Amino acid sequence: xxxxxxxxxxxxxxxxxxxxxxxxxxxxxxxxxxxxxxxxxxxxxxxxxxxxxxxxxxxxxxxxxxxxxxxxxxxxxxxxxxxxxxxxxxxxxxxxxxxxxxxxxxxxxxxxxxxxxxxxxxxxxxxxxxxxxxxxxxxxxxxxxxxxxxxxxxxxxxxxxxxxxxxxxxxxxxxxxxxxxxxxxxxxxxxxxxxxxxxxxxxxxxxxxxxxxxxxxxxxxxxxxxxxxxxxxxxxxxxxxxxxxxxxxxxxxxxxxxxxxxxxxxxxxxxxxxxxxxxxxxxxxxxxxxxxxxxxxxxxxx
Length: 302
Description:
302 residues, mainly beta, Immunoglobulin-like, Jelly Rolls, 2 domains, five-stranded antiparallel β-sheet, 18 strands, 12% helix
């Protein structure tokens, strides 16, 4: 009963947010064309997923393909908006991002294609889902017109897939060496992470076959004391290295063979950073005296 009431409230909040975004977009469209969007399209967009059935909380490879019109104008600086909707067209989460090649460098007639690993949100919904996407200006939120079928607000459905329960995933336990989970919610996007100390450990049940460990991590510290790489080990065997950027939390894929996992029922993987820092000693506000290594957003066994 409590879960049902919380789910209803969350869906209402998402619906209200979506309605507000739609109203703003429609207002921009009407202002540009008096109710009819007569602007010429600057190109088209398509998105393909690495699989059509995806469990909540798991990663999926998304390949974006933009084809610019031969007479496309200079686009300036634009972001890609990516909205994930449920069967009732209610917004669940977003994955807005900057493309690897800035839109200010795109040329008429050019095809821009790139693949991005995205972790599916832990939203209280399973079933049919769809993805709508497009381009917008970060300053004004103005959206560009594309040649795809318009949903009425310069957003375009580019893919559909099925959301599966999170129980389909390998359960990962965050054991020793972790600080408490931190959360930031911005609109429909909820971001969670945990800081490591100098060394941190995760554990999971041994699947007794080859797996891939996906780690999304960074270190936003701008001083020279922030960690810049994190070793991944089982025992003393080094499996790989996760680079820690100060500007973007990239996803690193580390293959682990069945032999490396061993024969024990549980597997422990160690994360060890090259150095740590204490925010309070770096001039940070709030007197944060924690020893911080890497900021880990996801550690997923596939």
